[in-house]
Design a protein that fits this description.
single chain; mainly alpha; globular
Length: 264
């Protein structure tokens, strides 16, 4: 579909703008140009779609995102939040059933993880709860004996999905505390990049720490009153340790601080 390809490119541009080092003025100018493009080329198409066409669009987008992930997952997140689809029943019940079934019964691979992150805010509350329970079960099955790299590879994906659950205000207090408990229990392992040179760490461990930063940021932003003193201690100490470890690796400390600010 030409519409999907167009929307995926727009989603990528928006992501690049969000994390770029451009000045705010330049970002604003490009954002206005992007908005004009959206209104001219996509909004009119979405507004003209019939109910059956919207259903087909949503189902096709979800199917392709589950198969390919990447740009299609970005497209899924962006397009389903568009004003011409936001008030529509999305995703289609049959499509969401397939997604939930895949999350509960299938392998949590990268494409499924990305699709769940994109679609979760739009799922019914009961399906969000089912997915959250499944992701918590995935984390519960992990142990420190798995080793740093193995634990990172197994833990990053469910943790990334749970970040979307927290951002959607769909994770129970009990579930939030369970997840934080798992993160705290892994402090004695070699999974956290609290010290040493980042260049010596595996990509799996780096990506896991990136996922932890996102989860903690979501918890602090959306559920601060549910955090206990030990959780706040973990958050603050982790941020300081990550900045120190990053500054010892990166040639320009200002880049490190900007990255931490962008993520948090």
């Amino acid at each position: 579909m030409g519409l999907l390809a167009c929307a995926s490119h727009v989603a990528c541009v928006e992501l690049l703008l969000k994390h770029s080092l451009m000045t705010e003025g330049s970002k604003t100018s490009l954002a206005h140009q992007l908005q004009h493009f959206l209104d001219a080329s996509i909004a009119a198409i979405l507004a003209s779609l019939s109910r059956s066409q919207k259903d087909r669009l949503c189902c096709e987008l979800l199917r392709r995102s589950m198969e390919e992930g990447g740009e299609l997952a970005l497209c899924l997140s962006w397009l389903t939040g568009h004003r011409h689809l936001r008030c529509w029943q999305w995703p289609h019940p049959l499509a969401s059933t397939e997604l939930v079934s895949s999350a509960c019964n299938g392998l949590l691979n990268e494409t499924l993880t990305q699709t769940l992150q994109a679609a979760l805010p739009y799922l019914p509350a009961d399906e969000q709860s089912v997915i959250a329970s499944r992701m918590l079960a995935e984390l519960h099955g992990l142990t420190q004996s798995s080793g740093g790299t193995s634990l990172a590879e197994s833990g990053r994906r469910p943790l990334s999905v749970l970040t979307s659950v927290v951002s959607a205000q769909a994770l129970s207090t009990e579930g939030l505390l369970q997840c934080l408990g798992h993160l705290l229990s892994w402090r004695e392992s070699d999974i956290y990049l609290f010290s040493g040179c980042l260049e010596e760490a595996t990509s799996s461990v780096v990506l896991f720490n990136h996922a932890v930063v996102h989860f903690l940021a979501a918890a602090v932003t959306h559920r601060p009153t549910d955090l206990w003193q030990e959780h706040w201690d973990f958050v603050l100490c982790s941020v300081v340790a990550w900045i120190q470890a990053s500054s010892e690796t990166a040639p320009d400390p200002s880049v490190v601080y900007w990255c931490c600010y962008a993520e948090c």
